[in-house]
Amino acid sequence: MKLSYKPYTLELRHVFTLATSSRNVTPVVLVSVESDGYIGYGEASLPPYLKENQESVIRFLSQLRLGPFSLAQSLEEILVYVHSVEEGNAAAKAAVDIAIHDLYGKAINKAWWQIWGLDRLSAPYTSFTIGIDSEDQIKQKTKEAKDFRLLKVKLGRDTDKMIISAIRSVTNCPICVDVNQGWTDKHYALDMLFWCKEQGVIFAEQPMPKEQIDDMAWLTEKSPIPTIADESFQRLADLDVVKDVFSGVNIKLMKCAGMAEAYCIVEKARLAGMKIMLGCMTETSCAISAAAQLSPLADWADLDGNLLITNDCFRGAELKEGKIISTELPGIGIIPVSFV
Questions:
Q1: What is the SS3 assignment for 41?
Q2: Catalytic site positions
Q3: Which residues sit in the known binding site?
């Protein structure tokens, strides 16, 4: 197998503002793995809070020796090797994991939703993310999201009620909120969740700081809507920590090192009685299409990362009637537009 990679910078359509930061670009590293005439593609998306960057990803990838491997080996055997090289590096490993899944799917001429026995059309509606902004910009972004059946709204500052009210002045579309750890007082957080429910909010993502585990468990017990772990939940091993603290988990390929572990998380989270949200970073259609293969297993999807950028270098899963639907192409279902 031949591994190739290169840095790339995603340019956002709007400045993206969270409770603690703003940015208008996201660095990524694009990956390809070639074997027996097939090429699989992957991607590592690197928002600042992940603590990985292009340099660390490239350093990790440069240590991999995939040359001795071929399609004769099992996919699992290769991924075990990738994970053994060094601890951490979840986004870097996700890039390789996605590329290997794409490669193996192409080799047997099947998409992963087919391999897993899923119905691609049964995917849940995906949300469209609206970052923290001025009232006028919030209204404009809401109007631009008219093709979506669910809006995801970033909160966590003193403008929270203004943002929700601005959206409600434009649409009655259901809303989910992502507080990004922005509420630090549990009583204030509970008041906000009751108010949010009155405004048509259906669940809240990471309302409180990940360090406040007891407060978060208290909040979930009393909350009128489900609470979803994001910053508090990264890998499969974290499931035991959050299962009694949140109502569900937000699975992101960049956090959990790829498709293989994401699939395992879904299975074990369901056994624990938890809700499943399938999320993303700002990504090209490569990583979004990889996540879309799992989408029929989720309660909610937030797979709009490729729709937030202006320089997507792949074509893949598409927005259809409010859902991100996988293509019928093999592997993760993408076509490179300008990868090289």
A1: strand
A2: 154, 252
A3: 178, 205, 230
